[in-house]
Amino acid sequence: MEKLILIDGNSIIYRAFFSMPPLTNSSGLHTNAVYGFTNMLLRLIQEERPTHMLVAFDAGKVTFRHEGYQEYKGGRDKTPSELSEQFPLMRELLESFGIAWFELAGYEADDIIGTLTKRAEEAGQEVLVVTGDKDMLQVVSDRVKVALTRKGVSEVEPYDPQQIEEKYGLKPLQIIDLKGLMGDTSDNIPGVPGIGEKTALKLLHQFGSVEEVLAHTDELKGKMKENLVNHADDARMSKQLATIFREVPVERSWEEMKFDGIQEESAVPMLRKLEFKSLLERMSFAGGGNAAGEAAPAEQVEIEVTMVTQDNLSELIADLSNIEGIIVESYGDNPHQATMMGMALSTASRHYYLPFDVLQEEYAAEARAWLADEHVPKRGYDLHRVDLVLFWQGIAFAGAEHDVQLAAYLLDPTESDQTLSGLAAKYHLSPVPGDDEVYGKGAKFKVPEPEELSRHLARKADALLRILPLQRQDLAKYEMERLFYDLEMPLSRILADMEKQGVAVNKEALKELGVEFEAQISKLVTRIYEIAGQEFNINSTKQLGEILFDKLGLPVIKKTKTGYSTDAEVLEKLAPYHEIVQFILEYRQLAKLQSTYVEGLLKEISPKTGKVHTYFRQTIAATGRLSSQYPNLQNIPIRLEEGRKIRKVFVPSEEGWFILAADYSQIELRVLAHISGDPGLQEAFLHDMDIHTKTAMDVFGVGPDQVDANMRRSAKAVNFGIVYGISDYGLSQNLNITRKEAARFIDQYFDAFQGVRRYMDDIVKEAKRDGYVKTLLERRRYLPEINASNFNLRSFAERTAMNTPIQGSAADIIKLAMVRMDEELYKHGLKSRMLLQVHDELVFEVPPEELEIMSKLVPETMGKALELSVPLKAEVSSGLNWYEAK
DNA sequence: GTCACTACA
DNA sequence: TACACTGTAGTGACA
Fold first, then answer.
1. Is residue A153 within 8 Å of residue A13, measured between CB atoms?
2. Tens digits of residue pLDDT in A588-636
3. Where is the DNA-directed DNA polymerase family A palm domain (predicted)?
4. Does strand B come within 7 Å of the CB of A588?
5. Interatomic distance A553 CA / C14 C1' (Å)
6. Which helix (H) or strand (E) segment is A758 a member of?
7. Distance from residue A885's CA to nucleotide C10's C1', rounded to whole Å
8. Cα A467 to Cα A477: distance, rounded to the nearest angstrom
9. Where does chain A hold its CATH 3.40.50.1010 domain(s)?
10. What is the CATH number that goes with domain A505-609?
């Protein structure tokens, strides 16, 4: 089936220009309109898969329409030079893509398109017209659809005759009559005064056309009749102006409009010249990408698997040196408690399925030795989890070289589907069924029979082998090889070691804390019921809201989607009104400690080791941070004393040892000082000043002695805001001030730290141009919504653009420090163990004789993890438990 | 499963 | 315009 796409070049380029933020390439050329246009082109090509294309442009200022009406298109503002310089670029780009374009003096793009649709229609071809001009709807027919742009040019709304009927109650040709009556201010077409869209539609529904309306003015009355009679000629002329001329001598044959997919050899240099990096990557010619004519994903093929038994184990053993990929399947969310289902081992030509009960046998020692050999490089999926699952089964795993899940995370940390099934689809490989499909989910989960399980794992292994080279290419292309092979892969082993080690918990002390909390909680509950005059579930926000707002009549400060808000912020404001509020706040605090930190933690203590073994997830946070689960040891209370006590139960696992903790001081602001190059901020850190006091001095223009506690507090909030991608609203909420005051603060901050202002402006521009931002170690995060027309989406992406390089670079640095620290412990033959990472803090357990060296070695290693233009500082302390190591 | 809430950096 | 500062995990209520 042949399909022609015709594009009104002028209409689209104008819309693209006004809907996109200004954008220039490094030589100062304006490119925003071309960018928007190209973006739309790519989408059209991908979604519509046209066989023929042509872009029509207006040529010259004067058209045949001016002959009859001098004022046609009068009153328009002059085209800005930033836009007019983009027309030649756009034509050049079309040529480089292999897309035909056409213009002819005296005619508008509309007329050229009208002519070509007529010809194509007569030849029985299917046509899609893309424009921002509603007039074009007049050419719609069964074969010709018109897509009108919405929201700039990012979305289009296609119309066929039925849709025009539904929306206007008109036939396509009546669109001309509509315009004749209502006119068009943008083209300076007068129409009839006093008649807008509504009236015009009413008249047309009644009479059908301009001529018929004018012939029946006697049936009308009032001002409308008068206007129609007096402006009958205007109406006729307006209709004529709005009529698309469909007999333009267009010298383009059907063959000349043929589109054979984007021509890579010429398109790539053009996109490079324009510096459209994100588009270049999106098209990814090598991987098939979006170019037309792309092959459909291959069909799922049958896969042969060798089931390994005692009898044929020797075949596998002989083939071990050829194994290229490993899939170890297990179920259960917590890898420390997961159950292994089976293992697939694959060479380029053969898949083996090795059941766990075979692997366990005495006679499979060679296979186990192979798994444990760190000199045998292993490629697989989620090897961090594999390591843990095998470990708890008593099987050692080492030598992870390429983890496909981890690589996928680096290539796009926000991709929610990291499964092999999803990756196979992304790389256009033969489809791999999802795990849920094969195993069922929730209550329906079932381990399948060995035949089905082995086939599924082999399919995954097959996809794995095909994905590996593609990921290597991608990692090289994005200069992420060091990040992957020298940082994240080594770190994944270190994390597994930390998790296996676990952290010892003083169970008795924890239970005692629980008893203490329980006593306080029950007192509070009694008191709250007394004051409320009834019993209710304080944990239920619904019931609590009813008591506070309906029964006690307290003022409603804030509402949630589903009812009254009762969060801490609201309760703080309500505290002066009623004594019950304070008790509820205290109850909430203690209930959280009891349920999450006492009861929750007790449940996570391993009966085998008496420790908690958290699971650090390396592929979750979009910024590159780690996350921690089962239990989360990255959110153990510290701010309030009651909660901080929880830290007393985290103790060394050996008699007489110590807990040592070291945390980076202001790592994020130091990173900001480095990447922004702001002299004031750099100076502060070079002299190791109190950064919030220094900020207060510069923002308020006072000396160090004049900074009071309140000024410092404000400065601190501004510093936090800066790191998060500041907004006046966010700061105003934080400091409980008006938005205006907050905006003034921010302005003063940027006046004092102009390098920071420049960084924030530049990084947002960069994100808009490239579609992603990067950290110091080339970690990247895509921000597809950075050019969205929706204010919220766009603002969120802009703040993310500001925050991610900061938070992400800080994550890079502490990860580097962990890898270095692991090396140092090994090099010095130390018995000390790294236990935890809490974003800017590392926690160790240390034997007494190493306390001295570790107190020096840890902050030193952290301090020189990465050299910045300002010093990195880490502070260390130690004690008998985590509470004391503060 | 989603929401509201709260804990951390 | 609308409506809002980064990144996470866990719990209890309620559908």
1. no
2. 999 999 999 999 999 999 999 999 999 999 999 999 999 999 999 999 9
3. 643-850
4. yes
5. 24
6. helix A754-770
7. 25
8. 15
9. 3-160+245-257
10. 1.20.1060.10
